[in-house]
Amino acid sequence: MTTKLEVLQLALEKALGEGASISAALGEVTVVVKAADYLQAMQTLRDDPALRFEEMIDLCGVDYSQYGEGTWDGARYAVVVHLLSLANNWRVRVRTFAPDDEMPIVQSITPIWRAANWYEREAFDLYGILFDGHGDLRRILTDYGFIGHPFRKDFPISGYVEMRYDPEQKRVIYQPVTIEPRENIPRVIREDTYGMK
């Protein structure tokens, strides 16, 4: 007897062929596709009558630069999309890696799911991932003059600049960060029986 998860995996293998790596763990199916095949794979996931992933639930960027405590040797940036098939009550996670770490670019899926518009803008704003074919790729969460991408692992926690209202100039001004870096000292537990009650 095959489970619903196995049926989904078989349907995905049949629809996507050998160009996709399909795995299941903890009751979830993940599909990894190459950036060159990403747009076509997403079109297939939506339009294939056996799959029918009509709804895009989420899209986010991921920075793998410090993944596995720095042992990761693959591409640095990935785009992860969660899809839902209402007709089949299936969910799938699709991951694609941007081939160039210096300028991460993947195809936009806004022609397939219009809901991807703001999600792709968010991934661009926070990670610097570019989406080829996106009609309005601009910042969505940070200020237009913001320098850098704050969710990248190499971005400083305090940032590079801060803004404040200057009453003398009667406007908002930008200045270098004035926050002094702190060293957090871990709490030392001195009792021998701590947590044993």
Automatic annotation (TrEMBL):
One annotated GO molecular function: NADH dehydrogenase (quinone) (non-electrogenic) activity
EC number: 7.1.1.-
InterPro entries: NADH_DH_suC (IPR010218), NADH_quin_OxRdtase_su_C/D-like (IPR037232), NADH_UbQ_OxRdtase_30kDa_su (IPR001268), NADH_UbQ_OxRdtase_CS (IPR020396)
Catalytic activity: a quinone + NADH + 5 H(+)(in) = a quinol + NAD(+) + 4 H(+)(out)
Annotated localization: Cell membrane
SUPFAM superfamilies: Nqo5-like
NCBIfam families the record matches: NuoC_fam, PRK06074.1-1
Protein family (similarity comment): Belongs to the complex I 30 kDa subunit family.
Descriptive protein name: NADH-quinone oxidoreductase subunit C
Source organism of the structure: Massilia jejuensis
